[in-house]
Amino acid sequence: MSKTADIRLPDPSRWKALAFIALAQLMVVLDATIVNIALPHAQTDLGITDANKQWVITAYALAFGGLLLFGGRIADLWGRKRTFVVGLIGFALASALGGAAQNQGMLFGSRALQGVFGALLAPAALSLLAVMFTDAKERAKAFGIYGAIAGGGGAVGLILGGFLTQTLNWRWTFFVNIPFAIVAAAGAYFVIREPAGSRNRSSLDIPGVVLSALGLVALVYGFTRAESSGWSDTLTIGTFVASAVLLLAFVLVESKVKSPLLPLRVVMDRNRGGVYLSLGLAVIAMFGLFLFLTYYLQVVKGYSPIKTGFAFMPMIVGMITGSTQIGARLMTRVPARLLMAPGFLLAGVGMLLLTQLEIDSSYAAVILPGQLLLGLGMGTAFMPAMSLATHGIEPRDAGVASAMVNTSQQVGGAIGTALLNTIAASAATAYATSHAALGATDPEQLKLQSMVHGFTGAIWWAVGILVVAAAIAGTFINAGRPSATTTSGGTGSGDAEGVEDEFKIPVVAH
Questions:
Q1: Cβ-based neighbours of 75, under 8 Å, separated by 6 or more
Q2: Residue 271: what pLDDT?
Q3: What is the pTM for the complete model shown?
């Protein structure tokens, strides 16, 4: 097929569509953190035990993380617009159920349903961008906006969660999703026009769906259980073993079946593989920090929920600036690895500042610059990562490639919360034990000192993880500078050809 035959005229409504896609993505990302601040109030109101409170978070994470690949494949099969709208409507209904919950069972069930519809919504949103924005410069701007929301939306959730919980009540952290979803669904229905011929109508790979869902659920549950029950717990170890067996079986099945859920060509490409791996590692570091800073500001410094939320503003500003002003402007001028690797390193420098936290640390001298550098670095790296993950992909694979981006973030978030929290708890316990033996006389002061020591110890690990993410981005990713006029996601001319056209590098077909 000729090059001219592969180029489509851009959709005149694409920028309007971006507004509604971005709104939906903001809702999903907000929901990942907005509930955290409201959780203590919901626990008291509904009589949720300490042992069960984790299920408010875990129910969502299991459903969302376990079904993302399935959601991406459904988007390719049904059509991204239809999947996007169904996901939004379902998410709104699940949110209404959560806000109206009368007992813990209703709340846990609503969170699981949010995860199910979020797994439809998230990959559909990203894959719509991938097939609608084909000009490299426009794509850079669109993914800059999307990347800023994906990176900074979690911190915005902390602000909004604090405001709603403090001024209204915890139920509004659920109800607030409803207007977001209604506006985004109505806008998408009337504005989005999915390019013709971009669906994958192959039969659904049922064994792949079952194995991937069970394997990812076991993996996410293993990390969440490790946080509460310890890494040596028999069920924790058994869950990790089961996850490894299920995911290995999934890979073997995908290599054999005619129409795989996850075509191995999607992840075996070194650029996309490098993006998935480095992005997952970076999210491990970032999600752990969200948790530590929230506790540090509220427990150690005594901030209110609203003040805590606003204390995250420098990170949001940094992410938006890094994504839209640095990443988007430089994406068409330099190779992606020269944005991602330095971006992760800059974020690591911000983390390094936060290892200096003490009980009486100044917000302006330590936390503000640390967050700003972290946000700038993450925003700069996230934007080309989001774009590169779907560049040159066959349109029929756009949904599942997008789902892999979300899967790496979701699994990374679960790992980050459990792994770094476990490290922090162990360090805090060791510190408290040793200093109690030395004759510390103020139990409350010792408790706070131990907590902060645990946080800084875990943040050192986060610094190391970001350095590894930078190394992976710098070595695995070899895509060159994208042409300013080429298109991606053409009419199905092949994955390898799409990547070669876009990045002007020699590629061997998978």
A1: 83, 84, 120, 123, 124, 127, 398, 399, 402, 403
A2: 87
A3: 0.76
